[in-house]
Amino acid sequence: MRSPSEASRIATGDDGARPEYTAFRALYRERYLRYAFARLGRDSEVAALVQDVFDDLAVRWPEALRSPSPAALAWDLLTSKLSAAGGDGATGLLRARLPDGTADAVVLCRLCGMDVEEAADVMGIDASSVTSRLGMARRTLSATGAEERVRANPLFG
């Protein structure tokens, strides 16, 4: 993990802080914290993990700006770190039954309370992809009989 000063130094240009990075961080940080808590279920690790994601993103910021979707690159960093952390909190059943991106859409929309457009923005994909993933999740969970167990979980009520 980089020190906050090192990441800040990397994310700044000669003329001061890069406003795009600062704005991106301000826009996404709270939503990343909510999602990370849903995945880990361990409050003590969430802030440090999300900070680490933004430290890594600061280093890769020029690459993110050249990419088709900086949000998608940042989302990949976040989900990779969460997978490495090994916790799936209340989302374990979903992640066992659904592809990662589909489970992510369900967690963002159902557990984190985001609408389809906000979830799409956070994931760096279009809203129709999130809608499609949510439909796939309903069909898959219904076909496997897991839908009732997911709904029985008070977090998904």
Automatic annotation (TrEMBL):
One Pfam family, short name:
Sigma70_r4_2
**Span of domain RNA polymerase sigma factor 70 region 4 type:** 96-141
InterPro entries hit by this protein: RNA_pol_sigma70_r4_t2, RNA_pol_sigma_r3/r4-like, WH-like_DNA-bd_sf
Source organism of the structure: Streptomyces iconiensis
Question: What name has this protein been given in UniProt?
Answer: Sigma factor-like helix-turn-helix DNA-binding protein
- The answer to whether the entry has keyword Transcription is yes
The reply on keyword Kinase is no
> In which family does this protein belong, per the annotation?
Belongs to the sigma-70 factor family. ECF subfamily.
Q: Which UniProt keywords apply?
A: Sigma factor, Transcription, Transcription regulation
